[in-house]
Specification:
Order of helices and strands of chain B: HHHEEHHHHHHHHHHHHHHH
Distance between the termini of chain B: 33 Å
Helix content of chain B: over 70%
Oligomer: heterotrimer
Largest sheet of chain B: 2 strands, antiparallel
Distance between the termini of chain A: 37 Å
Structural class of chain A: alpha/beta
Chains: A alpha/beta (238), B mainly alpha (476), C mainly alpha (469)
Number of strands of chain A: 10
Radius of gyration of chain A: 18 Å
Radius of gyration of chain B: 30 Å
Structural class of chain B: mainly alpha
Number of helices of chain B: 18
């Protein structure tokens, strides 16, 4: 569903991403680990068409993102690190609006069900988003992904800054998406979540995908060791 | 539902909840109300000035008729001999008509030059029309500050309201982080922005037009009397509004911060509304300077003196200063000579005056060409045109008065020369002045076209930009 | 020390921002252009004025032998002088006419306002130094200072500074100085250039450096008020955008809307009569009294009788002077009184309107500055009145001299009497000496007071905020 082929991006001489190749099938959750500036967000931005690749290709559902950005977005849902919504609209109105932008209309009841199905407390559904916590906004994001029936989910450090309980809830929702056959690409710092929810884990360093492991093939300790090993390389170079 | 209707709906709800809409309605209401109130006051003043002058003239006329009635019936009347209305020159001098320039239907819109010039004169048999003083008695501080009229609100303040309304139409969404979420949806960002801007534009236009039509009607202005003018007014306002909306969107597309956008838009406002007009004016004055009036005064006196020297052969100099006394000598002696002198002086002075007129017209022509530089200039000239308060209207009026004073004179001269008595019947057939307000449709159409062309060019620029610049709006 | 450090840091930070250097550059260029254009205009107008004044005198002096009263009707012109400081602020000169025709029986209004010799565009204003000083520099202040505090808040550096125990008042003063410095430099350069230019021009009359310095101070006070307001708004706003928009709104209200609104207000409460109504009222009063040209009116008959009684003679021809001339003079005196009465009323209306403007100044610091600037440059309406009144006084003296010459040198009924050519020269020329600055200060004390009040209140507001924040 999500595919990167020899993908590179450089910003005026700085290589942000070098020859990335990855393929994420439906039902897979691919977690990207790495320090700040390793190229995780760049990868996601390339899938979102926020930036264009210097070379290589990004494909969603086998469609070239650079060639038909609007088409590829039909399959896509995106939740950034800090999902922002219109503060003066309620959660439901936000959901309705964004669904509308995606060309999907829903009845009020459907929207309410989607929101509560994503774990948003009933009493908040008709409150303005300005009173929401970050976790609640993320839930609206998940509801949006569900509502739009997205085939691919792009997550940029979705759990950073969430308290453990909210973080756990979020993982459950991800699990749920996985079961629905959604292909997920998630950039994160959280090794535990990556091991817990991911099917595949990639460790990035200075724009390169250094390691690629199956989540169920390593233990959390091994993963941490591997991660720290990879990071040490950076420090020794410095 | 279509995507666009979702955008419209929630844009509207957002605007209401941010109290933007309420604020807009309130501020526009206050501004338009105050402007209409001021405009109405000036127009009413103008009307009542003319009416009271007309009433005085009518009163005097009826007194004259009574006197003539008595004289014709053979009674003696208690009036000095030199004031007897049965002498044509007495009527010509002491019973002048009111040559008034009543306000046009839409005069309320723009004060224009109406605070500088007077709106009625009473040319009589003796004074020459070019000697009439057409400037109004006014406090120059008021002329300097100008009037808080609709044209000020629409030309100067409306763009600022548009700027305050749209300077962050895109940048705010980016700064709040919502733009990324929008961008993850299968909708073109440009289309989305266009839809939002269009929604706001239609909303503001709707409120504005409603307020304008409502308050103008309440002020007693008939908007259908000359519908083409009303339409011009509305189209120009909408076009001007559109211009600032498009400009605001373009500035937003540059992808900078909201504060940066505001600074840029204000810079454009200063340039187009404050600096360009004053620079064009300054340049017009330097390129086609009207010769010094101080010099004219002396030139006129020299010409006058020479003409008088020639005329001295025709007339005693004292009599020339006091033609009203000429009547005492009785008959028509001196009249021919008096008017001959006047004609001589006029023909000698005319070339000097023409030079001034020519320079002013050159200035005007140059300014007219340059009005396309700034939509503010375009609107100003159009509004003055629609209101009948432009420089051209007052020139036109002066010319019409000048023609009328000739008609007035020509009516009396034969009677004076023939020594004919003025009768009651003649009182009813005195020439009357009626001001004909002329409008140039061509100019108006050109101005409307120009405003919309300005907008289209900007829009086109935006489209080209979006084609090649791609997603720079997401940057920063 | 601390304040100096902060000020220089602000100044440096501003310099590094494109917005600051570009806008300062543009304002400086506009100012130079404005000064240059005004200077050229002033020089040419001054020349025309000198030339016209000389010509008018020549025309008067070179009159042929004629009856003095014919000369009185022929009249002469008084030209309004230009003052050196009109280079900086031309004030209402454009709207107040350049000359007054002085003739028998009539007080004329000044004629030929420059604005009526220009296209409708003239109403947008001119690119003169006062336009930049009054409108654009406050905008510059807003552009430099709107984010003085919001930036620190947004970057989080305000907490950092507070954490270091810096007194907020010192921080404010530092920032204040940082904004004031560039404005001071621009204004000083302008005034130095203007005074150098004016020093090199001879015919302008004396340039009073004290007044120039005072004008400079007035503008600096105005800017200080704007800096205070800018910092207050920046201090209380949460975001730079909000601060900018609020400040711009304040600027629009203070500099654009208030002057116009107060002018409408003044006109509504104390309207001027229309020219025709004014003239008609004068005509009515004139008719009620003695008309020098009308020996048949009741007033003239009464006057004749009184004069005969007073001199104890039976007929007018027995009088030791020409009664025609004497009556002419008495008529002139009556008319002068009528004019005096009506112009006093007009002047009262003008003063009432001025009070409305002065009251509006409480809402806008622009207004007192505007009026003070014009007053100090002698280009305000009050200066115009001074000139018009002086011209009227001269006219009355002129008429008296002419009428008395007629009365004393001819006998009754002798309209053929002609005065000698040399007589025209004996009548002194009109030389206008404007009132002292003391009188101008007196007239404008409330403007000084209101501007001072603005400074005081805005400073106190800032100080108050520094304790609260």
């Amino acid at each position: 569903m999500l595919e990167a082929i020899d993908l590179s991006k450089n910003y005026g001489g700085h290589e942000a991403l070098i020859d990335l190749n990855l393929f994420i099938a439906p039902g897979e959750v691919f977690c990207l680990l790495g320090a700040n500036g390793a190229g995780k967000t760049t990868t996601i931005n390339l899938f979102m068409d926020f930036i264009r690749p210097s070379s290589g290709q990004v494909k969603i559902n086998n469609i070239d993102v650079a060639a038909q950005p609007a088409e590829t977005k039909k399959y896509l849902a995106y939740i950034p690190e800090n999902l922002m919504l219109y503060p003066n609209l309620t959660g439901l109105e936000n959901l309705d609006y964004f669904c509308g932008l995606g060309g999907k209309s829903n009845t009020k009841k459907q929207l309410e069900e989607l929101l509560s199905g994503s774990g948003l407390q009933k009493k908040f559904i008709h409150k303005r988003v300005s009173s929401y916590s970050k976790g609640m906004r993320q839930k609206v994001g998940i509801a949006l992904a569900k509502a739009r029936d997205a085939k691919a989910l792009l997550l940029d450090e979705p759990t950073s800054g969430l308290d453990p309980q909210a973080s756990n809830e979020f993982s459950e929702l991800l699990q749920n998406m996985k079961e629905r056959g959604v292909a997920t690409l998630m950039a994160t710092h959280d090794l535990f979540r990556a091991k817990d929810t991911g099917t595949h884990i990639g460790i990035m360093r200075e724009g390169k995908l250094e390691h690629l492991v199956k989540a169920n093939a390593v233990s959390l300790n091994e993963l941490e060791e591997l991660y720290l090993e990879t990071m040490k390389l950076t420090q020794s170079v410095l | 539902m279509k995507t666009s209707s979702y955008i419209n709906r929630y844009e509207f709800i957002s605007l209401v909840r941010q109290r933007w809409l309420q604020f807009l309605v309130l501020i526009l209401l206050v501004l338009v109300f105050f402007a209409v109130f001021n405009g109405k006051q000036k127009v009413d003043q103008r009307r009542s000035d003319i009416q009271s002058a007309q009433a005085k003239t009518n009163q005097k006329d009826s007194l004259g008729v009574i006197l003539l009635d008595s004289i014709e019936a053979g009674y003696t009347v208690n009036v000095p001999r030199w004031y007897m209305p049965n002498q044509p020159h007495v009527i010509g001098y002491s019973y002048p008509r009111v040559a008034a320039m009543p306000p046009d239907e839409l005069a309320i819109i723009a004060t224009g030059q109406s605070d500088i010039y007077t709106h009625y004169v009473q040319p009589n048999l003796y004074g020459e029309s070019f000697q009439l003083n057409y400037t109004e008695l006014s406090n120059p501080v008021q002329l300097m500050f100008g009037s808080f009229d609709l044209s000020f609100v629409l030309i100067n303040l409306l763009p600022l309201i548009v700027i305050a309304f749209t300077y962050n139409i895109l940048s705010q969404e980016r700064e709040q982080g919502i733009l990324q979420v929008i961008a993850s949806h299968p909708v073109s960002l440009y289309r989305w922005l266009l839809q939002k801007a269009l929604m706001r534009y239609l909303l503001l236009s709707g409120i504005l037009i409603l307020l304008l039509v409502g308050l103008l009607s309440m002020a007693g202005v008939s908007l259908v009397a000359d519908f083409s003018k009303t339409l011009t007014f509305i189209l120009l306002t909408l076009g001007y509004l559109l211009f600032w909306f498009v400009l605001a969107c373009l500035v937003n597309l540059r992808g900078h911060s909201s504060a940066n956008n505001a600074v840029w838009l204000i810079a454009w406002w200063i340039l187009l509304v404050l600096l360009v007009p004053s620079s064009v004016n300054q340049m017009a004055n330097s390129l086609y300077p009207v010769p010094s009036r101080a010099r004219l005064i002396n030139e006129l006196r020299v010409v006058n003196a020479e003409a008088e020297k020639k005329a001295d052969k025709l007339l005693e100099s004292f009599l020339r200063d006091h033609p009203e006394l000429a009547g005492h000598e009785g008959g028509s002696t001196g009249w021919k000579e008096y008017f001959a002198t006047q004609d001589l002086i006029k023909s000698e002075i005319q070339p000097v005056l023409d030079e001034y007129e020519m320079k002013l017209q050159q200035q005007q022509a140059w300014v007219d060409q340059l009005r396309f530089i700034s939509p503010a200039l375009l609107l100003q000239s159009s509004f003055n045109e629609i209101s009948g308060t432009s420089t051209r209207h007052y020139e036109d009026y002066r010319e019409q008065v000048s023609d009328f004073s000739l008609i007035w004179r020509d009516y009396f001269l034969p009677k004076i020369f023939r020594g004919e008595a003025f009768t009651k019947v003649m009182m009813a057939e005195l020439p009357e002045f009626e001001y004909q307000s002329s409008t140039t449709h061509k100019l108006r159409t050109a101005n409307i076209l120009a405003v919309f062309i300005c907008c289209s060019v900007l829009l086109l620029l935006g489209v080209l930009w979006s084609r090649q610049g791609k997603t720079s709006i997401l940057a920063h | 020390m601390m304040i100096k450090k902060i000020a220089f840091k602000e100044f440096k930070e501003n310099l590094r921002e494109g917005r600051f250097s570009v806008s300062t550059l543009i304002v400086s260029l506009l100012l130079l252009m404005g000064v240059w254009l005004s200077y050229n205009y002033l020089i040419s107008v001054q020349q025309q004025h000198a030339e016209a004044k000389e010509n008018a005198r020549n025309i008067w002096v070179s009159q042929d032998e004629k009856n003095p009263h014919s000369a009185a009707h022929y009249g002469t012109y008084a030209f309004k002088p230009k003052y050196p400081l009109s280079l900086i602020d031309p004030g209402v000169d454009k709207y107040s006419g350049i000359s007054i025709f002085l003739e028998a029986h009539k007080r004329n209004e000044s004629q030929y306002m420059a604005a009526s010799d220009q296209t409708g565009l003239a109403r947008f204003g001119d690119l003169t130094p006062d336009f930049i000083l009054l409108f654009i520099i406050p905008l510059l202040i807003i552009l430099i200072g709107y984010n003085a505090f919001t930036r620190e808040k947004e970057q989080g550096t305000l907490k950092l500074l507070k954490g270091q125990g810096i007194s907020l008042w010192k921080l404010i003063l530092g920032k204040w100085t940082g904004i004031f410095l560039p404005v001071l430099i621009i204004t000083t350069i302008l005034f130095v250039i203007a005074s150098i230019l004016l020093m090199n021009v001879k015919d302008f009359g004396e340039l009073n450096y004290g007044v120039l310095a005072l004008l400079f101070l007035v503008y600096l006070t105005y800017y200080a008020v704007f800096i205070n307001i800018t910092l207050i708004v920046s201090c209380t706003s949460k975001q730079s955008g909000i601060s900018l928009v609020s400040l711009l709104a304040i600027w629009i209200v203070a500099c654009l809307a208030m002057p116009k609104a107060s002018s409408n207000l003044a006109d509504t409460i104390y309207p001027y009569p229309s020219r025709q109504a004014f003239a008609a009222a004068i005509e009515k009063d004139k008719k009620a009294g003695l008309d020098g040209h009308n020996p048949w009116s009741q007033a003239a008959k009464d006057f004749e009788r009184e004069t005969l009684e007073k001199y104890g003679v039976d007929s007018l021809s027995q009088l030791p002077f020409n009664f025609d001339g004497y009556r002419m003079q008495k008529g002139e005196e009556h008319e002068a009184q009528v004019y005096f009465k009506h112009y006093a009323q007009l002047k009262k209306t003008h003063q009432q309107q001025t009070k409305v403007y002065q009251a509006s100044a409480v809402v806008s610091p622009f207004l007192p500055t505007r009026f003070l600037s014009m007053a100090l440059a002698r280009t305000d309406y009050g200066s115009h009145w001074d000139f018009a009144d002086a011209a009227e006084n001269y006219r009355l003296k002129l008429q008296e001299a002419l009428n008395m010459n007629f009365a004393e040198n001819s006998s009754y009924g002798d309209w053929a009497y002609k005065a000698d050519k040399t007589f025209w020269k004996d009548i002194p020329d009109f030389n206008y000496i404007p009132p002292s600055y003391g009188k101008i200060f007196e007239r404008n004390w409330s403007n000084f007071a209101v501007l001072g009040l603005w400074l005081l209140v805005s400073f106190s507001g800032l100080k108050f905020l520094s304790q609260k924040l």
